[in-house]
Amino acid sequence: MAFLPAQYEKIIGQLVGHRITLVAVSKTKPVADVQEAYDHGIRDFGENYVQEMVDKAAALPNDIRWHFIGHLQTNKVKYIAPFVHLIHGVDSIKLLQEINKQGAKQQRVIPCLLEVYISKDETKFGFDEAELKALLQSGIIAQLPFVRVEGLMGMATFTEDNGLIRAEFAHLKELFDQLSGFHSANIEISKLSMGMSADYQFAIENGTTMVRIGSLLFGERPYAKN
Ligand SMILES: *Cc1c(COP(=O)(O)O)cnc(C)c1O
C-alpha cells in the first residue's frame, strides 16, 4: 500500500493547533512511498534501520529531515552521523559518547533525545527516571560538545489498556516538565517524542510535541518487523 493522503490530512488537522511535529515513519516502505509523502509536503521521516535510512537518504531529496527512531547500535552511528537530523532513542552513556565521537569527525553537533523507560514491556529500552536525572546532573554531557540533548522520547506499553497508556504518557510529560527548566551549554529539554499510530491521541492529550506515525500514513507493514 502506498501513502494515504486522506489520513495525513486528518492527522495534520489534529496536530496543527498544538504545534506538534509529525514524523512520518517510513520503515520497511519503498522509496516511492516516501517520495509520495514528500510530494504532499512531508519533510520529517523516521527510520529504524541504519542501512535502510542511509539508502533512502541517498535516493531521496536532500531537504528531508531524517529521524533515527530505532535502537541504535554504537558500531553503526558512523553511517548516519553525516546527515541524521535527530536521534530519538539514545539509551546509554556509551551511545552518547559514540555519537559525540562521530559528530566530532563530521564537525557537526548531533541532536539527540534521551529515551525514558516508561512501559511494562521488557523489550523496550531507556533510562529510568533516577538514571536520567543523575545523567543530566552529572556533567557528563557537557564533556560531549558534538552532542546536543534536545529532549525526551518514550514508548508506552503495547496494550489494549488505554488507561495504562495515558498514565505512562502523563508520567513522561511530568518528567519532561520538571526537566524542561534544565539548561546547559548542550542540553535543552524542549522536545518530547511520544505517540505512535495506536496511541498518538493519548500523547496529544498529554502534551507531546512530536509524534512518530507509520502505519496510519503508509498502511500496515507486511511483517512484524517493528
Ligand atoms: C515503528 C515505530 C513507530 C511507528 O509505528 P506505527 O505503529 O506504525 O505508527 C514509532 N516509533 C517507533 C520507535 C517505532 O519503532
Key structural traits:
226 residues; alpha/beta; globular; binds pyridoxal-5'-phosphate
Which secondary structure elements does this structure contain, and how are they paired or packed?
Blueprint: H1 5-16, E1 21-25, H2 31-39, E2 44-47, H3 50-59, E3 65-68, H4 77-80, E4 86-90, H5 93-106, E5 110-116, H6 129-138, E6 147-154, H7 162-179, E7 183-184, E8 187-193, H8 200-205, E9 210-213, H9 215-218
Pyridoxal-5'-phosphate is lined by residues 25, 27, 48, 69-70, 155, 196-198, 212-215, 226.
Describe this structure in words.
By secondary structure, the chain is an alpha/beta fold. The chain has 9 helices and 9 strands. Helix 5 links the parallel strand 4 and strand 5. The mean pLDDT is 95. Pyridoxal-5'-phosphate binds next to strand 9.
Short recap of the structure:
By secondary structure, the protein is of the alpha/beta class.
